[in-house]
Design brief:
The chain is mainly alpha-helical. The protein contains twelve helices and six strands. It has a two-stranded antiparallel ribbon with strand order 1-2. A two-stranded antiparallel ribbon has the order 3-6. It is globular. The termini are far apart.
């Protein structure tokens, strides 16, 4: 059998498996419909029902889901998953930049280099994002630097694991990747971080540093003065990526605690990626509360 025939056979088998194993959520729902363009023969996905009230968010989510199909194709690999996450990160940043450019003076963002008041809380990531961050660290840091970071992540994990989000929001628990007041993984920072854009830096600082203001914030659950459109954009990108990976490829894309997920990767290395790609759940102990 020729190489081309074997590839076609594997592609057909994978398509059949995807159709048979379509992921359903806890309510038994499937959110994506897989279809083929009769003219071009290309596969694509669409939302069975809108996820959001605003049509542009549904368009973004659909686009992200189709990117999943285009990048992972019929033979997903961990390298393609990393590429997918990087594309989602870049797409989110472009969307946010465009939204901020149209905001005008009334939507002037207060965030700037060295402003890290939002880097003291639980950050949710998907497995795809965690793999992309870990890949970046392996490529950009020496063995000695990685060992120091591994120990640091383990220490932060030990001090924070099991704490509720309300306790994690504290000046005592900076992000494990916050170095000298700046994000040390800015190039591959999570989607959630890209969507956060404050309109008042002093409010952010007071909310974090002043115990009374922090307690009031936690009690009311009010997000403060922030630009909402970037948050909506990141959520739509993330939703499309999560649905595409989980429904089309049956891979676990539940929300993870960034620190806990990176601790799992530092401790397990390549075996974590192999287990995840095989449809297992190696990040089980890194799941966000309620998952």
């Amino acid at each position: 059998m020729s190489g081309r025939s074997r590839k076609a056979e594997r592609a057909a088998a994978e398509k059949k498996r995807r159709k048979e194993r379509a992921f359903r959520d806890d309510s038994g729902r499937v959110h994506l419909a897989l279809h083929r363009d009769p003219a071009s023969g290309r596969e694509g996905v669409s939302l069975k029902k809108p996820l959001y009230t605003e049509s542009w968010q549904n368009d973004v989510a659909t686009g992200a889901a189709n990117t999943v199909l285009g990048v992972l194709e019929h033979e997903p690999t961990i390298e393609r998953v990393v590429e997918l996450a990087r594309r989602a990160m870049a797409s989110t940043s472009r969307l946010v930049e465009g939204l901020l450019a149209r905001a005008g003076e009334g939507g002037a963002v207060a965030c700037k280099a060295g402003c890290a008041h939002c880097c003291y809380q639980v950050v949710a990531v998907t497995a795809a994002e965690a793999f992309a961050i870990f890949d970046h660290l392996q490529r950009s840091r020496s063995a000695a630097e990685l060992e120091l970071l591994r120990a640091h992540v383990a220490d932060v994990h030990q001090r924070t694991h099991g704490l509720p989000s309300s306790e994690r929001f504290s000046p005592e628990f900076p992000c494990a990747f916050l170095e000298g007041g700046s994000c040390s993984i800015y190039e591959v920072r999570p989607l959630a971080c890209r969507g956060a854009n404050s309109l008042d830096a002093s409010e952010c600082e007071t909310r974090l540093r002043d115990p009374a203001a922090r307690a009031e914030f936690l009690e009311r659950g009010h997000a403060g003065r922030c630009y909402l459109e970037p948050l909506r954009a990141f959520r739509a990108v993330s939703a499309g990526m999560q649905l595409g990976v989980s429904e089309l490829y049956r891979l676990d894309m539940r929300a993870l605690d960034l620190v806990a997920a990176m601790h799992v990767l530092f401790e397990g290395g390549a075996s974590v990626a192999s287990a995840w790609m095989a449809g297992q759940q190696p990040f089980q102990r890194a799941l966000r509360a309620g998952q």
